[in-house]
Design brief:
The complex is a heterodimer of chains A (about 120) and B (about 120).
Chain A: E1 5-7, E2 10-13, E3 19-24, E4 31-37, E5 44-50, E6 53-57, E7 64-68, E8 74-78, E9 87-94, H1 98-101, E10 105-106, E11 110-114
Parallel strand pairs in A: 2-11
Antiparallel strand pairs in A: 1-3, 3-8, 4-5, 4-9, 5-6, 7-8, 9-10, 9-11
Chain B: E1 3-5, E2 10-14, E3 19-21, E4 24-26, E5 32-39, E6 46-52, E7 59-61, E8 64-69, E9 74-79, E10 88-96, E11 105-106, E12 110-115
Parallel strand pairs in B: 2-12
Antiparallel strand pairs in B: 1-4, 3-9, 5-6, 5-10, 7-8, 8-9, 10-11, 10-12
Classes of the chains: A mainly beta (about 120), B mainly beta (about 120).
Chain lengths: ~120, ~120
């Protein structure tokens, strides 16, 4: 186990609703990244938070937003849900930047289904 | 733009066979990092290896080995004497050093099934 925990593990929403996903990073890690993984595809980078500020964003619309808290835990918020938002959302934590340390520690993900 | 291609979507082998997972990447950067991750059915991605673009030495770790060739933009992964526990989806990923932090570009993954 990596020590990265995500909640909820599964959830079902309907189009237009809003969702909040949560991530507790591994102890000592101050950087959190979020990835979206559609079924049968590789993960896609959404954004990253370092010391409570967004520090890098992928090609996702503004209705995808996030927060990082002083304890380095993080939330991913998605507004106005669309069917294509159905995916596994993965959180990854690292001590500062993964390029320095060589690895990200991923949680088991939150599987979101939008009906 | 960076891109990672894993042409093999699914591979099936019998236990104890050797298997190679292919990865081809595209980047305009001269400094970049390559990764392999394993995703078991539980969902979390498990880090296997990181390589930077200046280190073309092949690496071996137990039954795992990696072959990095800049000339062909490939970073292939070989499992020797495969075991049932190796069954998972394997992802190759790339990060350009110019990008801040942990933005990895993943390939589409290769599902490896090892049968007893």
């Amino acid at each position: 186990e990596t020590g990265v925990t995500q909640s909820p593990t599964h959830l079902i929403k309907t189009r237009g609703q809003q969702v909040t996903l949560r991530c507790s990073s591994q102890s000592g890690h101050n950087t959190v990244s979020w990835y979206q993984q559609a079924l049968g595809q590789g993960p896609q980078f959404i954004f990253q938070y370092y010391r409570e500020e967004e520090n890098g964003r992928g090609n996702f619309p503004p209705r995808f937003s996030g927060l990082q808290f002083p304890n380095y835990s993080s939330e991913l918020n998605v507004n106005a849900l669309e069917l294509d938002d159905s995916a596994l959302y993965l959180c990854a934590s690292s001590q500062r930047l993964a390029l320095d340390t060589g690895e990200l520690f991923f949680g088991e993900g939150s599987r979101l289904t939008v009906l | 733009a960076q891109k990672v291609t894993q042409a093999q979507t699914e591979i099936s082998v019998v236990e104890k066979e050797d298997v190679t997972l292919d990865c081809v990447y595209e980047t305009r950067d001269t400094t970049y990092y390559l990764f392999w991750y394993k995703q078991p059915p539980s969902g979390e991605l498990v880090f296997l290896i990181r390589r930077n673009s200046f280190d073309e030495q092949n690496e071996i770790s137990g039954r795992y080995s990696w072959n990095f060739q800049k000339s062909t933009s490939s970073f292939n992964f070989t499992i020797t004497a495969s075991q049932v526990v190796d069954s998972a989806v394997y992802f190759c990923a790339l990060s350009e050093a110019i990008n801040a932090g942990n933005m990895l570009t993943f390939g589409g993954g290769t599902r490896l099934m090892v049968k007893p």
